């Protein structure tokens, strides 16, 4: 594949970032993401993997079992996805950005023809300045909503699209030491290449809308590392989080490429 003019970032935004931890999707957060893309667009191209469909739907409807059962979650995702896309489309359009929607599932990454189709579609979109916004196709697959693995979907996307960087935006200043999470002091691990070491830092705790916790982010980083892609876990609740991370003005975790011994 020929070199691209711009660096390609796959940016995953979790439900907690989009709701800023509330019960409502935050237009302000979506605008913040859009403004950063505008500011960076001469040097970087973006593919977004966005959760939030279920969280948006919960704003509008109250289905049986309050969205705990898997089939009810699937229905909520189906109701929420068009609303989520509408909010992205309206907010990004005001900033002069074009959006598109791609719904994918893990099994699409296992079939050669589907993989080619995904790459081709996304390359055409990006070449025409459309920002692909990817979410899991929750009607046909339940893996992600069960295990919180839009993180994994983002990593599979990053490796398939040969991205230069995977950014996972969550609600903490990156991955913190286990001890510091347990005593609420949150000390960020700034740079690491040893994924096994990170696994020992996982605390079995997730936030209100989240599903996979830090475990699924570390698994995503492993997939990206195997594809020779760096992963940054950043606090997406803060304004300007991507730009500040690029300029090293914020605390976040870089999972750098593996070092192979001869
Ligand atoms: N070592 C750790 N460092 C930081 N957060 C951790 C760690 N281990 C577990 N967590 C939990 O993971 C949560 C983020 O994951 P999650 O709730 O799934 O959010 P998202 O919606 O961003 O995917 C944090 O709010 C925290 O509760
Ligand atoms: N497809 C689901 C994704 C669920 C999910 O993985 O959530 P998160 O842990 O916030 O990334 C949705 O849009 O609600």
Automatic annotation (TrEMBL):
<dbReference type="InterPro" id="IPR005715">
    <property type="entry name" value="Glu_5kinase/COase_Synthase"/>
</dbReference>
<dbReference type="InterPro" id="IPR041739">
    <property type="entry name" value="G5K_ProB"/>
</dbReference>
<dbReference type="GO" id="GO:0005829">
    <property type="term" value="C:cytosol"/>
</dbReference>
<dbReference type="InterPro" id="IPR011529">
    <property type="entry name" value="Glu_5kinase"/>
</dbReference>
<feature type="binding site">
    <location>
        <position position="138"/>
    </location>
    <ligand>
        <name>substrate</name>
    </ligand>
</feature>
<comment type="function">
    <text>Catalyzes the transfer of a phosphate group to glutamate to form L-glutamate 5-phosphate.</text>
</comment>
<dbReference type="GO" id="GO:0055129">
    <property type="term" value="P:L-proline biosynthetic process"/>
</dbReference>
<dbReference type="Pfam" id="PF00696">
    <property type="entry name" value="AA_kinase"/>
</dbReference>
<dbReference type="InterPro" id="IPR001048">
    <property type="entry name" value="Asp/Glu/Uridylate_kinase"/>
</dbReference>
<feature type="domain" description="Aspartate/glutamate/uridylate kinase">
    <location>
        <begin position="7"/>
        <end position="235"/>
    </location>
</feature>
<dbReference type="GO" id="GO:0004349">
    <property type="term" value="F:glutamate 5-kinase activity"/>
</dbReference>
<comment type="pathway">
    <text>Amino-acid biosynthesis; L-proline biosynthesis; L-glutamate 5-semialdehyde from L-glutamate: step 1/2.</text>
</comment>
<keyword id="KW-0963">Cytoplasm</keyword>
<dbReference type="InterPro" id="IPR019797">
    <property type="entry name" value="Glutamate_5-kinase_CS"/>
</dbReference>
<feature type="binding site">
    <location>
        <position position="150"/>
    </location>
    <ligand>
        <name>substrate</name>
    </ligand>
</feature>
<feature type="binding site">
    <location>
        <position position="51"/>
    </location>
    <ligand>
        <name>substrate</name>
    </ligand>
</feature>
<dbReference type="GO" id="GO:0005524">
    <property type="term" value="F:ATP binding"/>
</dbReference>
<keyword id="KW-0641">Proline biosynthesis</keyword>
<keyword id="KW-0067">ATP-binding</keyword>
<feature type="binding site">
    <location>
        <begin position="211"/>
        <end position="217"/>
    </location>
    <ligand>
        <name>ATP</name>
    </ligand>
</feature>
<protein>
    <recommendedName>
        <fullName>Glutamate 5-kinase</fullName>
        <ecNumber>2.7.2.11</ecNumber>
    </recommendedName>
</protein>
<dbReference type="InterPro" id="IPR036393">
    <property type="entry name" value="AceGlu_kinase-like_sf"/>
</dbReference>
<keyword id="KW-0028">Amino-acid biosynthesis</keyword>
<comment type="similarity">
    <text>Belongs to the glutamate 5-kinase family.</text>
</comment>
<keyword id="KW-0808">Transferase</keyword>
<keyword id="KW-0418">Kinase</keyword>
<keyword id="KW-0547">Nucleotide-binding</keyword>
<dbReference type="InterPro" id="IPR001057">
    <property type="entry name" value="Glu/AcGlu_kinase"/>
</dbReference>
<feature type="binding site">
    <location>
        <position position="12"/>
    </location>
    <ligand>
        <name>ATP</name>
    </ligand>
</feature>
């Amino acid at each position: 594949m020929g070199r691209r003019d711009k660096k390609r970032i796959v940016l995953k935004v979790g439900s907690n970032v989009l709701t800023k931890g509330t019960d409502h999707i935050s237009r302000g957060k979506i605008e913040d993401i859009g403004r950063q893309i505008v500011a960076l667009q001469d040097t970087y191209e973006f593919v977004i993997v966005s959760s939030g469909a279920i969280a948006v739907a919960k704003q509008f409807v109250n289905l049986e079992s309050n969205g705990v059962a898997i089939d009810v979650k699937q229905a909520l995702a189906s109701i929420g996805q068009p609303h989520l896309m509408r909010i992205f489309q309206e907010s990004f359009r005001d900033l002069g950005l074009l959006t598109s929607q791609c719904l994918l599932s893990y099994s699409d990454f296992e079939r050669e023809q589907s993989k080619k189709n995904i790459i081709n579609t996304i390359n055409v979109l990006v070449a025409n300045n459309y920002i692909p916004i990817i979410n899991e196709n929750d009607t046909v697959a339940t893996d992600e909503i069960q295990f919180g693995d839009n993180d994994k979907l983002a990593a599979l996307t990053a490796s398939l699209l040969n991205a230069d960087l995977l950014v996972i935006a969550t609600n903490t200043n990156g991955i913190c030491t286990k001890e510091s999470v347990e005593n609420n002091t949150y000390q960020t691990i700034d740079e690491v290449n040893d994924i096994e070491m990170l696994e020992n830092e996982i605390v079995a705790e997730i936030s209100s809308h989240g599903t996979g916790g830090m475990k699924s982010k570390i698994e995503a980083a492993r997939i990206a590392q195997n594809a020779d892609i760096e992963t940054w876990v950043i606090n997406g609740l803060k304004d300007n989080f991507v730009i500040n991370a690029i300029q090293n003005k914020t605390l976040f975790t870089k999972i750098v490429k593996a070092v192979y011994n001869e």
